[in-house]
Amino acid sequence: QDTPPSPQDEIDFESFYLKQVTAEFADDLDKLRNASDFTEKSVPILINALKATAGMYSEGEKVKVMGKR
After folding, report:
1. Do 63 and 6 touch, CB atoms closer than 8 A?
2. What does the alpha-carbon distance between residue 28 and residue 22 come to, in Å, rounded to a whole number?
3. C-beta of residue 21 within 8 angstroms of C-beta of residue 53
């Protein structure tokens, strides 16, 4: 049976995931940042949206991605 990720594992996964997503979608994120309607208020919304997508992975998937069993 798989061991669920610890709170630190969750933090590590989120950090890893955000780095991967921002690297993969760097061009798209630049387009968003350069849009005329992108303001300082848009930054936390964008960050929260990106963080929320990390939550779509199961505990088992997170453990596998982080290389732990």
Report:
1. no
2. 9
3. yes
Single out the residue of 17, 24, 20 nearest to residue 55, CA to CA: 17
* The two three-digit tokens of residue 18, written as one number: 């955000």
Residue carrying the six token digits 């996964």: 13
62, 8 contact by CB (below 8 A): no
The identity of residue 28, as a single letter, is D
Distance CA 61, CA 67 (A): 10
pTM of the model as a whole = 0.77
Tokens of 11: 């933090």
Whether 68 has a pLDDT exceeding 80, the answer reads no
**pLDDT single digits (tens) 11-67:** 899 999 999 999 999 999 999 999 999 999 999 999 999 999 998 998 888 888 888
**Alpha carbon distance 3, 51 (integer Å):** 23
